[in-house]
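Q: What would this chain look like folded?
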Amino acid sequence: MMNNKLKLIFFYFLLFFVMECESTKIIEIQGHRGCRGLMPENTLEAFKKAIELGVHTIELDVAISKDNIVVVSHEPFMSRTTCLDMNGFEIAEDYDKKYNLYQMTFDSIKQFDCGTKFHPRFTKQQKLKTYKPSLDEVIKTSKKLNPKIKFNIEVKSKPSFDGIFTPSPKDFVALVLRVVNDNQVFKTTNIQSFDLRVLEETKKQSPKMKVALLIGANEDVFGKLSSMSFLPEIISPDYKLLNDKLVRDLKTKNFQVIPWTVNSVEDLKKVIELNVDGIITDYPDRLINLLYK
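A: My prediction, written as C-alpha cells:
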C-alpha cells in the first residue's frame, strides 16, 4: 500500500501534469474561407495558402449547382462584392442574386472570375483570376498538400432559399456527405450551420458525423441549443458573445468552443485567454504568430 507521503507526492505530480497540459493545450487554427484576409475567399489558392501557413482546419461554405455539384461558395449566387461576370465586367446592382448557382451548371459557374475584384474590407488580398471550385476539388487539393488537414464545412441554408437557391436540407446534406465519404475524409470533417434543419438532417443521415452549431451575434446560445433534438459536439458562436463564464459553462457540458470570426490581434489575444478549443479567422498568419512565435 502507498503510504501517505507517497500519495501526497503523487497527487501534486498529477496536479502539476494536468495544469501543464492545460497551459500548453493546442488551439485549433481554422482558416476562414481559406484565409480571406490574404487571398480571395473560398478559392483553391486561399486553401493552399492557409495550409502553407500551417492551419489545422480549413473552413469553407457550400452551395449546390444545377447539375448537383457541391460548389464552394459563401452565397448561392455570384456576389457583386467578390466576383466579376463571365466577360470580366462588374455585376450590376440590379443583377444582384441573378446569377443563381442552383440554376447554373458547374461548367458555367467556373467561367466567372472570383479572384480579381478589389475587396473593400480586405484590401491586402492578393488578386488573381480564379473561380469557385467544387468541394471535391478542394478536398483532393488540400489532402495532397497535407494529408492530415481537417475540414469544417458550412452548409448555407435557410427556409426562404429552399427550392430557389438551394435544395431541401435533406438533399443538400446528402450531396455534401457523398463528397465527404467518397474522399474518405469523414473522420477529419465536421458540418456546421446556423440552420437547425441542416444539423438535424446531418445526424439523421450520418449519426457519427460531428456537427457545429453556429450562433449569431443576436442569438442566445442555450436558447438555440434547447431547440435541438440532440447535443452538437461543437458550439461556434460569434466571438463577441464569449466571456469566461459562458466558455466555462459550455466546456463543463463537454462542448468544444470554436468562435468565429476573430481577426484583430487584440481580439485574438482576448479569445485565446478564454481557453477556447479553436478559433476561426480570416488571418491565420496572425493567430499562428501569437501562438507559436
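The chain has a mean pLDDT of 93.
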